[in-house]
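Write out this protein's structure.
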Amino acid sequence: MHRYLFIALISFIILTLGCKKTETVKEVVLPTNFQPVSAGSAWTYAEYPLTNLYSTYANGVDSVFNKKVYYEMFTTNAGFSWVRKENGNYYRLLPNLDTVIEFNYLKDNVPIGTKWEKTYEINGFPTTYKYLLWEYDEPRLIDGEVYEHCITIREETHVDFGSVSDSLMSSWDYTYANDVGLVYINRGKSGQIYLKTFNIKP
């Protein structure tokens, strides 16, 4: 009797060890594509409470500034801009008088609560852009559509008009969805902007 119990126990141990050997750990892939740039991609946005619609298009044109490669974008209400990504940092070039300014508008490789800022000379005044990452890898419901893996950045614009303290001109929250791009802007009292339709090309 003891012999059979011993054999059964050994068999159970072997079976258990065999099962453990077949277990696999699922790799967690973090979202890292919050600004698709593939040629022909398009996004249409609506403003609220206004009823204006505008669109952004990825033109698929490469441009080189300061030895960096950027991808050309065109927005129907704002004109051309150029974007690039490097080591988890997203950059946007915008025209400013006879030059262009590069904004580090998004980071996807830093923890929640990370802050960064930079000061530029815009229209003759020192202008500081302050950023805060306050939401990462969260689902968001926008205009009846659920977007997974979203990141939200708060952008504050401060202008120094020569007074003792600078003036806060705006504080907007930008939400980006992985593999989609910008899906929502909360502009506070100025209203909201949300994504209506999009078409991301491979």
